[in-house]
Amino acid sequence: MIRTERLILRPWRATDREPFAAMNADPDVMRWFPYALDRAASDALAERISTHLDEHGWGLWALEVADTGEFAGFTGLAVPGFEADFTPAVEIGWRLPRWAWGRGYATEAARAGLAYAFGTLELDEVVSLTTTGNLLSRAVMERLGMTHDPADDFDHPMIERDHPMSRCVLYRLRRTDYEAQYAGG
C-alpha cells in the first residue's frame, strides 16, 4: 500500500469491481481507448491486474480517496503486452472515473508510482503512452516531468492501423531526470 497526501494506492478488493465496471463502460472515460468494456471484460481485467499485483508486489494499484474510502480508478506500473521499439519497458498509467477528473489525483498518484519505480524497483526509465489526441493524459505526463520525442511515436500493434486510436505518443522519464526533478522532495 502506498499513501499520498489525499490518496491510497492499494491492492484490489472484490468491492472495487462494480465501480471499476461502471468506469470502464463510461464513454467519456473510454474515449481514448478503442472500445468500452462490458462487465465481463472489466472483471477479467481487474482479475489480471490483481493477480499481477499479488505475484509481483507492484502493478496497477486500485486508487482510493483517503478521506472517503471511495474507489477512484487505478494508477501504477505495467509492462506493455506488445513489442515495439521501446520495449521491454515499464509503463506508468492511470484511469479515473469522471467524478475524479480535474482534482490532480492522476498526477498525485502517478508521482507515487514513479517514486516506487525509481526507488523500490530501481528502474532506469519509465515510459507512458496514449493516443495522440488524449491531451489530458499528455498534460499529466508533462506535469510528471516526462518528455516526448515525436521520433518515438508509433502505431499501436494491437490496434488496427486504420483505427483512429492506433497512433500513439510515447513519453519517457529517465532516473537521472527524475532524481534531478524530485531531489529534496
From TrEMBL:
PANTHER family: GNAT FAMILY, PUTATIVE (AFU_ORTHOLOGUE AFUA_3G00765)-RELATED-RELATED (PTHR43792), N-ACETYLTRANSFERASE DOMAIN-CONTAINING PROTEIN (PTHR43792:SF1). It comes from Ammonicoccus fulvus. InterPro entries: Acyl_CoA_acyltransferase, GNAT_dom, N-acetyltransferase. Residues 7-176 form the N-acetyltransferase domain. This is GNAT family N-acetyltransferase. Gene3D superfamilies: 3.40.630.30. It holds the Pfam family Acetyltransf_3. PROSITE patterns: GNAT.
